[in-house]
Specification:
By secondary structure, the protein is an alpha+beta fold. It folds into two domains: 98 residues, Protein of unknown function (DUF541), domain 1 (Translation Initiation Factor IF3, 2-Layer Sandwich), CATH 3.30.110.170; 109 residues, 2-Layer Sandwich (Alpha-Beta Plaits), CATH 3.30.70. 33% of the residues lie in helices and 35% in strands. The chain has a five-stranded antiparallel β-sheet with strand order 3-4-2-5-7. A three-stranded antiparallel β-sheet has the order 1-8-6. It is elongated, with a radius of gyration of 31 Å. The N terminus is likely disordered.
Length: 237
């Protein structure tokens, strides 16, 4: 029995001695840790517009009825302008009063404003062509829309740009690690660990819109900035 135990112990020592150095724990290796960043600038090819109708009346029923009529005309105008029905989605519907929105006081001789009901109906409209945004907005306003809340620009498919930004981030990390290794007089080894993350920003993330009468309302999509970052850990060989 003792002989068998000695043989097994010898075999265990032999296996441990033949394991690669990394298996014993890379945490004991000398390391260089760097952050890399990549950026891609691209022109957006789609937009989401939030627009709708707000009506006010002393009668809740009349405020809601007028709102429904104008909103139906607005949606009809959007469909006529070429927007697909699936790209129009209700984003807000409410019926409140002016006293729900702002406090009124009778102090200091001030009388509260007459009670007024406010009906609000807004839709999010996806436009797959940034060139026609002004014409679509003009059509909606002409049909009765009196609330254009925001315009957000985006990409229909951002994956290629995200991949390119990530590739540039990895290249940047490699470049920085090599600079550090050269400056320190050491040899850059294998990558022990790498993690990544994305950022997706615009020079104007959300564009507030104020309608102004014009032959065609000018809308500028500008540019989007897609960024990626990596944190890479290299072994010093």
């Amino acid at each position: 029995m003792k002989s068998a135990q000695i043989v097994l112990l010898s075999l265990a020592v032999l296996i441990a001695s033949t394991l690669p150095a990394g298996a014993a724990g890379d945490e004991n290796a000398s390391k260089i840790i760097v952050n890399g960043e990549g950026k891609v600038i691209v022109v957006p090819d789609m937009a989401v517009v939030v627009l709708g109708v707000e009506t006010r009346n002393a009668s809740a029923e009349k405020a809601a009825r007028e709102n429904a009529e104008l909103m139906n005309e607005t949606i009809s105008a959007l469909l006529t302008a070429g927007i697909a029905e699936k790209d129009i989605q209700t984003s807000q519907f409410s019926l409140t009063t002016n006293r729900d929105q702002s406090p009124y006081s009778t102090s200091e001789g001030k009388e509260p404003l007459p009670l007024e009901f406010i009906a609000t109906n807004r839709v999010s409209v996806r436009l797959n062509d940034t060139q026609g945004i002004g014409m679509v907005l003009d059509a909606a306003v002409s049909a009765g829309s009196n609330s254009i809340q925001s315009i957000n620009f985006d990409l229909q498919d951002s994956q290629p740009q995200e991949d390119l930004a990530l590739s540039r981030a990895v290249d940047d990390a490699q470049r920085k690690a090599q600079i550090v290794a050269d400056a320190a007089g050491v040899q850059l080894g294998r990558i022990l660990e790498i993690s990544e993350g994305y950022g997706y920003t615009s020079s104007r993330n959300e564009v507030a819109f104020a309608y102004a009468a014009a032959p065609t309302t000018p809308i500028s999509p500008g540019e989007l900035e897609i960024t990626a970052s990596v944190t890479a850990t290299y072994e010093i060989s």
